[in-house]
Amino acid sequence: MGESNRADLQVRFDRRIQMQFQGAKVTSDAGLLAILELDEALGLTELAGLTLADTRTGRNIQHDQVALLRQSVYSRLAGYEDTNDVERLALDPVMRTVVGQEARGKLAASTNTLSRFETGTLTRRENLEALAQLNGLWADRAMGHIRSWCIILDLDSSESPVHGEQEGADYNGYFKSVCYHPLFCFNQYGDCEGALLRPGHVPSAEDWRRVLVPIVRRYRDSGLRKYLRADGGFACPELYRYLEQEGFRYAIRLPENPVLQRQLEPLLTLPVDWDQGQTIVQYYDLHYQAASWQRPRRVIAKVQWHRTQLLPEASFVVTNLGATPQAVVEFYDGRATAEQWIKEGKYALHWTRLSCHRFVANQVRLALFVLAYNLGNFLRRLVLLDTLRHWSLRSIQVKLIKIGTKVIHHARHMIFQMAEVAVPKQLFTQILRRIWALAPGAG
User: Fold this and answer.
1) Three-class SS of residue 76?
2) Quick check: 333 and 319 in contact, CB under 8 A?
3) Cβ atoms of residues 8 and 19 within 8 Å
4) What are the tens digits of pLDDT across the range 167-193?
5) Do the Cβ atoms of 280 and 271 come closer than 8 Å?
6) Rounded to whole angstroms, how far apart are CA atoms 336 and 176?
7) Is the distance from CB of 6 to CB of 20 less than 8 angstroms?
8) Cβ proximity of 284 and 290 under 8 Å
């Protein structure tokens, strides 16, 4: 009896150790069950059935749009950044549960099916627009579960390096690489409110309306106070005018120029009692009108005297805020969090993995990555205990999603025997209870 159950493999350093590969009887991603519970509580991917157009006409359709979207988004959140792992994941009991196939004894979508969905169905113009609309609906669902008196938007662009002959790839002088140049907009809670893939050579502010206008429209009648921050790449009068018309308060970095420097020069007096062992920071309120502006605007100058430099370092922020100069600069400095969230998307989800040849297919891939990012961020900010809010998306992947589990099938039940390592039963129970509290009528 013992010999007949011998493992497939043994290691040489200790012959007592045997290894068996159980295939569909075990999974390494059991934490996705909590993600599915959150998805159901907020009613997220079910919205795909209302927004995405299904162009399939065959009679043998085994996976609906919601199931395919879940498989695409959940696999990315679990760290599988492309379709190379689909064949194995189609056998995985958690992935089959996520897409609703486990109970029917069927597999999740195959590589061919999922690839057709991502590079065919979703690349249609109406579905590209539907993906952006879906992301906005997700953000609205998450915002509906918090009390906030304001919305703060951060615009920022990033680099997605490419290593082939992808359409739209081009050299970017700022990043010094051949890349795409995507544009992102985050809110103060880390949700990605919108994203747009762009060719590599375009300026930072290119097509800002395509990202920002739908977001502004969603918050127009929200009753929230509205703010926006952006770096010097977005210092353009068209953006200022639009924000002012929409009732936004803004703080945008203004690149220095000779006119600003001359206006500031009379104020640059080295303090007599300056201790060169310290850095001195001074703030100035300027009234400035660039040649392309229709009227003057408020500009805040921040001047720093460093002990290692003979001349001061000056930076400028254009704003319509009424706060003190120091408060305006501190508010602007808060936009650095957007850079951190972009890094999370890069290093946890690998959303720079845009390796399709067609530009439109890579647009879809970025949109799917953003949905996966938001799903993970919703878990972090709406569900995790205060003591765990510091977890990065990578921590959520490694500690919560990547839970090794043995699956046991009974006639009426399916049991997931989950390992207690980073997330013990008590903590997982607390996570589920907090998710259940988000469901409609839970209060």
Assistant:
1) helix
2) no
3) yes
4) 999 999 999 999 999 999 999 999 999
5) yes
6) 22
7) no
8) no
